[in-house]
């Protein structure tokens, strides 16, 4: 099945969502554009993979992608959830926001700390999703339960579903609001990008980290200690992959990889297969565009290699 895009072409408050105050099974089916028989089939299949493609990706991460009827329903729910307005500190899966806008908030802060939520999607339980539909969207209890079943696999958010990138924000708004309030007390900036949380200000120390950790623990989450980093004025902070220098920039390692890519291309350009060179051309073009997106100067050696590749691919070399 070809994937359908999620169209967040308008934004509304939570109480304007079509899933707000759903009181009957019939209304739920009309909203989801399925029959009651189809809904029952999906709910009864809970816990097995009839409607999911489950595999491990190249990074060793388990992925659960909905398929067939389940995919249609998830796409529909994702379209409805994507339009719900979220606080300004959330930059993930939000029109006009990105990992770049997330990093930009913390530019010029004197001290900064980043930390990840451990096993984020798998820690978001069907119960927390039921509570969201029951108390935030004010659905009837049985409807909230059915929606929590539709939105989860084996009791947690599926990692490969379109709904997950929206529910991971919405389900945890109370927790994030509490963290934001704590940061405001210390005149700190606060942003959330999926499982990546950043706080910054004049001073960010262990006590602030402990407060954040306690809030997360209270909501059933843990911090991934290995990903926690604190940056003081003598270190170049990196937030959601962006280096915060005088301006936003790519990491030094990115420039090194860019140079290595160009050197590799120049070394084998006369002998490499056409398809390999074509792939490398688009890879180089994408990396150059990323540098440009941050308003940084693209290194001269990139243009030189790109021009050489273009000539080779056009049969001029």
Explain how this protein is built.
The chain is an alpha+beta fold and 317 residues long. The protein has helices at 25-32, 36-44, 68-81, 99-104, 120-123, 126-136, 141-150, 164-170, 173-185, 206-218, 252-268, 274-293, 300-313, and strands at 52-56, 62-66, 111-117, 189-193, 196-201, 223-231, 238-239, 242-244, 248-249.
Topology:
Layout: H1 25-32, H2 36-44, E1 52-56, E2 62-66, H3 68-81, H4 99-104, E3 111-117, H5 120-123, H6 126-136, H7 141-150, H8 164-170, H9 173-185, E4 189-193, E5 196-201, H10 206-218, E6 223-231, E7 238-239, E8 242-244, E9 248-249, H11 252-268, H12 274-293, H13 300-313
Antiparallel strand pairs: 1-2, 3-5, 3-6, 4-5, 7-8, 8-9
